[in-house]
# Entry
Amino acid sequence: MLEAIESGLVMGSIYALLALAINIIYSTTGIINFAHAELVMLGAMFSLAIIVNSGAPIIPGLIIACALVGVVALVLYYATIKPFGDRLGNSLGWLMTTLGAGIIFKNIAQLIWGTQPRAFPSIGGESLKTVLGIKILPHDLWVLVITLAIALFIMALFDKTVLGSAIRATAHSHNTTRLMGISAEKIILVCFLMSGIVAGIAGNLIAPITFAGAQMTSTIGLKGFGAAIIGGIGNSKGAFVGGLLLGILEAVSMLYVTPGYKDAIAFFIMIAVISIKPGGIFGVAYETKV
Amino acid sequence: MWPMKRKFNRGQTILWMIAVAALIGYCFGPATGPYYLRLLSLSLIYLILTSGLNIVSGYTGQVSLGQAGLYGIGAYTGGILATSLGWSFWLCLPAAMAVAGIFGLLLGLPTLRVSGHYLALITIGFGVIVEKILIEWVGLTGGPEGIYIPGVTMFGTPVDETMFFYILLAICLIVILITRNIIHSPYGNAFSAIRGNETAASCMGIGIMKYKLLAFVLSSVFAGLSGCLYAFYSTYISPDTFVFNLSVFFLLTIIVGGQGTLTGPIIGTILLTIGPEYLSSIDKYRMILYGLILIVAVIGLPDGITGIIRRKFPDLITFSQPKEICADPIVPTHAENQGGELLALTGVSKEFGGLMAIDNVTLTLDKGSIHSLIGPNGAGKSTLINLITGVYAPNHGQISFDNKPISGNNPSLIARLGIARTFQNVQLFKNLTVVENVLAGTHRHNKASLFEFILRTKKARKIADYSYAETWGLFKLIVLEAKASDFADSLSAGQQRLLEIARALALKPKLLILDEPAAGLNEVEINSLGRIIKQIKDKGISILLIEHHIDFVMDISDKGSVLNFGRIIAEGTPGEVQTNPEVIEAYLGKKVVDEPC
# Structure
């Protein structure tokens, strides 16, 4: 049971990391980036190409890889979101375009790096460490710590800084933000960049667990959306808690059913939460004005 | 709901000829050789599914990305029944439709609470769950190995590929016909109205949940049929066919073709099933190209290919005047609408957060009268109307209509009792034409079932023709016949307000609530509005009027109430209200010093 919770916490942190980055974009544009999972995958593949294959030093290599994902996220914005202009909120067109971008990323990665998943070095080696009486891989610990740090950083950024209030203002109304002298476009670009960088970091944390390959995030990505929804989309605290909750519930349920049903259970939890409390566990319901 | 006979104009003739040519082309399908015959068959199977998907996603606006799951359920229902129980193809088809329909109902249930991207995620989740169960439940589904299904026999002889193709073509044509009959019925009109504006639809007496669930079930039944046909056609099914990407493909076909149009799925499905085969030389880049099409099509063709066609032939949708126009579309209600109270509010309160928007309001409205509600901006007038029509539920107090309590009911129920309204910010169905907007108001009087409209029974046709004639009668009243085939958002602000009144009148209400009908109207339009309101009143319909043009209000009301800060501060005849010191204070402020005369 304890081990299940521990592995659930690790996977949960990863879902949370995805959900946090999905939220950053949601909170300014009101859209869910369905290509996010592929950005995460690209993070891992860039690192693999830069560090493992080209032999660049680790820390600068990681920074370059994550920055590259940020740049890809900006391209994604220009190609799939910006063309909608003010029509963005009216339809789910963005859903299809970001999905399309995801398909393109995945298949380009497959063309370059092939279909075979590859091993990916983990942080802190393979030897088990004992923390509080539980045997744990150092990498798993790093996943937890880094996720927590990023979550705290994003929460502080949104709630305590001028940039954060500009982001929240943009979320509310692009036009009003423009009238206040803030370039809504710049704010959105910053958010896409941040989301991309966080995706890159997530990719490097996931790859040692799942192996690196074009398909590595196919279902993990969907669970990132699930985590964001469960916690209440647009809410950083919710994304963090939602991710951990989803990870733990999923891991604990594995004690009772065969592992093949893992994804089915995760999505069942997601559907149940949306149906019962659409705003998520941290969501607030407003009456719509007529 | 459309008139049953119509003449074709030039654009319509050209398009019909293309359609007939395509059908004849399909009839010669088997001549193309086994490879292309297979593709053509597959496009027919997909077309059945996408026609259904078009009902739920295109017309009703509820995006479903779980269609591959329903398709899989249909295929496995057919496959399992045929292999384990030895059922024949012809028995498996209805069974697959029924099972998929039940799952569609389950999938549709969350729409009671959510829509938009939440719904998209729910349907994605549903698809993944189905896919995993198909893989894991080896005992039932055969797991990753899949199921081999015996071939189809008809009258004791096995059906070959060519024969099967014609069976598919026949079923496909029936499905398209059924879809057409559904869409051109009050049910189709309700679906489109929901996509256009849920609040307005519900205030027109359209039960949102009922129609959303119906749309989900219909699309699932079609998906189940399509899946079962696929199972018997390919004689082998395995879980890796029914994946998320297939759901994306289905949605893409209706987006490329044109959502919410009858021909959209046909064009999109044929194009996207057969088109990519010409790209097989660059197989490696096929998925990348597919992703690019997805982006370019959605951004470049927001209305799909049918959108381009419509722009090319703007008179493609033309509603012709019916032979008989209802001379008197407003039914006189003197007999049942005389004396006593029609609407009574007792101690009604509504809070938003800490704000008391409506504070202990008691109000009665007499049958057959025009009652005006005036008050400064932010006084709570529109909130009061939203409480009466069920858009909001009151925190305290009782509202009764015709001596029946109505507070707490949903808007469509209240509308069906006979309360019709207009909105302060015009809430028309912008995706519908002027005619269809008014037809949406006639829902309360549709007494025929969906099956009667699918089969076009005499009763259904009579109802449709009658509603149509009535609609044109209302156009005569508001002088808008010339614009009948235009989209509602192309009208001027004044015309939009009048159209909203016509739509409300189509309900044949006992009580008509007008929320600032004269806002944004010029002097001439205000005069004709006054004429229309008097005409309505002469028929015995009670009116609750919110208005700022005091002259206009005083001219036509029998009684007035003044609302300020959520409370009624004065009530009485127009003269009494006008001289009430509290009212003067609310509008003009307190007099500090008396001016010397």
